[in-house]
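Summary of Year 1 activities. Much of the first year was spent building the evaluation harness for sequence design. The harness presents a backbone, in tokenized form, and records the residue chosen at every position. We chose the following record to illustrate the format because it has been used consistently in internal testing since the harness was completed.
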């Protein structure tokens, strides 16, 4: 999937019914901390949740979750990068060892936190919950997702 460089923000939300229309709510923090002006008109794109999460969950190794919500991930290639990507494909916007501040927007089918950064690129964060804002260190980078380890709970 190609995502425009004009992307201002990316978040998950529900669609609600309000009188004779459907409403998509923009989280307050997207306006307060982003490039969105509530007095402007924007084009909106909707991305299927299920297909993206399926692709991410099948690519990340084996993951197990307990009833308490804690998650452990096993992946023999953790900490390594994939083979170089052909020049025609965009490069991942993160590198192994990089630290980032991210907000967890979703939970994957295996129970891992899902954050999105530039161009909608997915970072899987085991042990994170929706709505958490955490500092992570990127431990693995693939062409379509990365894995990050929490190094600071909130910021």
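For this record, the design step produced the sequence shown next.
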């Amino acid at each position: 999937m190609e995502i425009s460089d004009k992307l201002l923000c990316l978040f998950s939300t529900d669609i609600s019914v309000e009188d004779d229309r459907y409403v998509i709510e923009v989280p307050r923090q997207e306006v307060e901390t982003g490039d969105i002006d509530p007095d402007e008109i924007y084009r909106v794109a909707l991305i299927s949740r299920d297909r993206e999460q399926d692709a991410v969950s099948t690519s990340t190794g084996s993951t197990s979750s307990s009833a308490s919500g804690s998650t452990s991930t096993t992946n023999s290639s953790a900490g390594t990068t994939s083979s170089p990507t052909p020049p025609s494909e965009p490069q991942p916007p993160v590198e192994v060892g990089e630290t980032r501040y991210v907000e967890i927007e979703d939970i994957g089918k295996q129970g891992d936190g899902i954050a999105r950064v530039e161009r909608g690129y997915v970072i899987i964060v085991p042990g994170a919950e929706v709505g958490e804002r955490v500092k992570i260190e990127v431990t693995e980078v693939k062409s379509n997702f990365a894995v990050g380890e929490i190094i600071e709970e909130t910021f």
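Residues 67 and 103 are 23 Å apart (CA to CA). Quantitative recovery figures across the full test set are reported in Table 2.
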